[in-house]
Amino acid sequence: MYNLVMTLLIIVSFLIIIATLMQPQKQQDALNALSGGAVFSGQTKKRGFEALMEKITAVLLAIFFLLAIILAILSSK
User: Fold this and answer.
1) How far apart are CA 8 and CA 12, in angstroms?
2) Containing H/E element for 12?
3) 68/75 Cα distance (integer angstroms)
4) What SS3 string covers 13-76?
5) TM spans, by residue (predicted)?
């Protein structure tokens, strides 16, 4: 059981890295913040691919933390 959870944790870790790297970059938002651009430009609702990648990343992170807790419980026994 311990080896299965550890393997799943490693797989989810790689998937989190891939999902994070696939998210669109926000260079323009950082540039606007430094140059005094529109303050509320980051408040727009995310759509399409950006929203999907954000949801996938959030789900993968939840799975990661759940697996990490299960692994900690299993290793303490």
Assistant:
1) 6
2) helix 2-22
3) 10
4) HHHHHHHHHHCCCCHHHHHHHHHCCCHHHHHCCCCCHHHHHHHHHHHHHHHHHHHHHHHHHHHH
5) 6-22, 56-74
Alpha-carbon torsion angle 28, 54, 52, 34, nearest 10: -10
Distance (Å, rounded) from C-alpha 24 to C-alpha 58?
15
pLDDT at 5: 93
pLDDT of residue 49: 84
Taking only the tens place, the pLDDT of each residue in 17-68 is 999 998 877 665 555 566 655 555 555 667 788 888 889 999 999 999 999 9
Closest CA to 19 of 58, 66, 46: 58
Contact 19, 60 (CB under 8 A): yes
